[in-house]
Amino acid sequence: AKARKLKAFVALLTQRFDGEPERLLAAPVEELRPLLLATHGIGPETADSILLYAAGRPVFVIDAYTRRLFPRLGMTPGRDSYDSWRALFMENLEADVGLFNEYHALIVRHGKEVCRREPRCEVCPLLEGCPTGGSGLSLTR
Q1: What is the Cα–Cα distance from 18 to 119, expressed in whole angstroms?
Q2: Which residues, other chains included, contact 71 with Cβ-Cβ below 8 Å and sequence gap of 6+?
Q3: 124 CB-side CA count, 13 A
Q4: Considering only CA atoms, which of 31, 29, 68 is closest in space to residue 52?
Q5: pLDDT score, position 139
Q6: What φ, ψ does residue 114 adopt, rounded to 5°?
Q7: What is the topology classification, in CATH, of domain 60-141?
Q8: Which of 77, 50, 55 has the alpha carbon at shortest distance from 66?
């Protein structure tokens, strides 16, 4: 399965960008994101990771940690879809690559170490402002 995904990405790179990663990464977000999403094996999170981390574009990456942490903090978009979550961040944060990179890294770290499936609210620096913090610590929220 991974080989098929890699072949699809290589096909995109060779057919659309003459095999030059620099050309792919220099393409406008409005052009590149749909091409990535149309490539077998690349979903929204992977496409946005490529855009943020490899191409250095101000695109916010949404992952499982984000979708777990922010509802616990009482912040959710209208719908629970990747695009709704992405819009929530893109519309409310300054479009800055460094900010998005650091913010995402902090969310991942917090999600791995503190706000896990079984949260460790007792060590959470956000506990005071968290509407669900401390309630039912043994429950998965």
Answers
A1: 47
A2: none
A3: 26
A4: 29
A5: 46
A6: -125, -60
A7: Endonuclease Iii, domain 2 (1.10.1670)
A8: 77
